[in-house]
Amino acid sequence: MRHTHREHHHGRRFAHRSGQHDGMPHSDTDHHRHERGSRGGGRRSSRVFDHGELRYVVLALIAEKPRHGYEIIKAIEDRLAGTYSPSPGVIYPTLTMLDELGHATVAESDGKKLYAITGDGAAYLAANRATLDAALARMDGIRAAHGDGPPPGIIRATENLKLALRLRQSRGPLTEEQARAIAAALDAAALAIERS
Description:
The protein is mostly helical.
């Protein structure tokens, strides 16, 4: 592959600059300390991408269409159902590396850097399709586990409502006034949900 020597050269330079191997930031290859809980609360460490996979995901995203750095961050976050958001300190060095390797180009757009894949980048991505597919499959698995269906808070509230109705009915028949009050409460909740 005609970029092998060039890639090795830049990989060493990035490794020297960041103190890591293979030109990738530490948080991409090992620990991902930016994963967020479903409520945006405490962060926990989790491995989302295997070594070097993030570069292929980034290349795939800019192959779909040219993107700004923050758009790449948002696209990855959306694909992972909000469970992980890569930091700018991970994404921008990756984009710089891809640019220097000739796998991506960067152009100014409204004062912001817009990244697009090159022919060499497309060939590099095709040659590493198996690695990309593995990363995308893992991302889809995370999304399926965390992103399909309503958020946990809505599931909890829905189950609480069902339980409250069952418990009330188990106490005996409802009077007409009680039935009207419960129906009114349910109608009010439905209206609030429709308007949200």
